[in-house]
């Protein structure tokens, strides 16, 4: 069911990747989250900056994350300040594969990249990126360049 | 009609519009009109049985409709609706607006002369200013960091308004390309020091003004010394290391920072570092990676934009001195000149902020170039060639593919004959247009000054291109040394 969508690829800067991995490991055993900022053109997404955000979930951070509306608006403002775009969000899956859950699917926004890093025993491992289909039926995996 | 602000992920369904006008007397009706106009939005905003999804936050002005009358919330003229994604769902929490206390207390006092009474009569008849207020202005001092786009209008209005002492920090000379927006300087000033030019212009407006000029770069070594004798600091910087430096020095000294920044058609303003209020780091804890933000020279800026933002900074400085009005503390003002829109975001002080938080870890100024990752590129990291070598090779008839990675509007101004334009942002998906194979010509990449082309060379190298060189100094150096008949920009 999950396939790599033709033409959609994500380029993550080394610095953004390092931020996501470090944040995921530091937040373990809880989920971390943050914003992804950069540029995009047809089918190509370049993520230059990953910004750590607070996980404000009230349902237990071991299995959930939530970005506050204030942080969301500040992330859009940040992107504007940089002359860039808000391209999506990352979060970690502690002791769980880097695949989106049903809960992730239910709460996903279209046209965003969702980067997930698997963190096992406090060590960041697999890092994958996903994009919601326009009909909300599933995520497609994006190739990470 | 009521405007609805559309968040980034949904703009694909509104024809890229970030604002849509809708009809309706309530939020429910307005959203129904929105989804009637743009049907693809429905699935993302509403569940199958027509209820607003839990992770869709809807605000009327600054209020979450959950705390009003939900979808029955009535709309009145002048309201703005915002759809704010809650990523991964949940409810919104009302955040406390920052405390807006704390005016800058001028250290000096000054009596008004009869000339002052005439000059400032339009201030004096404002009850909110009056004699007392004008005396506060005369006794006050403001330090402008930079005499450029933002510093120009700010300093002009502060001088005209009767602020007693203005300090200016800058070390540049006036360039002809500054004149499109830096209204402190005129055509006759090209080549002069910006400080001298600024001082002349400010004293022409107000000969009573005391102008202190500091012909130096602001550094961690001199910032605290420079700031300590001023009541308000006005941040007109154009780079991130200095912006963080100004912020941290203001927090450490307890001086308010009238902040502004501009990019292309958009600007931002706020007042930071007022005790109890947020600072720049509460908003942006980490600097952007080097290279993400194009410089003014590369990104461009609408000349009139700093006029708006700089005068907002001056307005805030004056209000702080007067101790009157509602300061822009705990609020970030966003200005979009292209669509002519002002918006405002609430900010709060971050208790975890490393500078102004409850347990600060930054207690002295640090190395901001290092903090922002601005380090000179490792020599030899990418292959380079000079404009003289390139010219010689063209004249010899070497087979070369000259790749220009600037934007089309820059290409129109000047170009190297025979070059091919592929803007940097399009390069990764247009690699197939480049010569490949064993007998392919060597690729020489250039931009305006060499920054973007260095990124392009790295991209090409990572994609398996082996014979790629960066043109040092870009087309500006080409025009300087090889082809002065073309226009520089």
What does this structure look like?
The complex is a heterodimer of chains A (145) and B (489). Chain A has one domain: 3-Layer(aba) Sandwich (Cytidine Deaminase, domain 2). In chain A, 52% of the residues are buried. Chain A has three helices and seven strands; from the N terminus they run βαββαβαβββ. Chain A is of the alpha/beta class. A seven-stranded mixed barrel of chain A has the order 1-3-2-4-5-6-7. In chain A, helix 3 links the parallel strand 4 and strand 5 (113-120). By secondary structure, chain B is of the alpha/beta class. Chain B is 29% helix and 17% strand. Chain B has helices at 27-37, 42-45, 114-119, 121-124, 130-139, 151-161, 194-205, 223-227, 240-253, 280-283, 296-299, 305-322, 368-371, 387-396, 408-413, 451-462, 474-481; strands at residues 2-5, 19-22, 56-60, 63-64, 81-85, 141-145, 165-169, 210-214, 232-235, 257-263, 266-272, 331-336, 341-346, 384-385, 400-404, 420-421, 442-446, 468-471. In chain B, the strands form three sheets. An eight-stranded mixed β-sheet of chain B has the order 8-7-6-9-10-11-12-13, sandwiched between helices. In chain B, strand 3 (56-60) and strand 4 form a beta hairpin. In chain B, helix 6 packs parallel to helix 7 (194-205) and helix 6 (151-161) crosses helix 12 (305-322). Residues 89-109 and 376-380 of chain B have low confidence and may be disordered. Chains A and B meet through strand 2, strand 3, helix 2, strand 4 and helix 3 of A and loops of B.
First-to-last CA distance of chain B: 43 Å
Shape of chain A: globular
Strand order of the largest sheet of chain B: 8-7-6-9-10-11-12-13
Question: What's the architecture of chain A, going by CATH?
Answer: 3-Layer(aba) Sandwich
Outline type of chain B? globular
- Main interface by residue count: A-B, 56 and 52 residues
Straight-line N-to-C gap of chain A? 22 Å
Neighbour order of strands in the largest sheet of chain A: 1-3-2-4-5-6-7
Structural class, from secondary structure content of chain A?
alpha/beta
CATH class identity of chain A: Alpha Beta
The tally of domains of chain A stands at 1
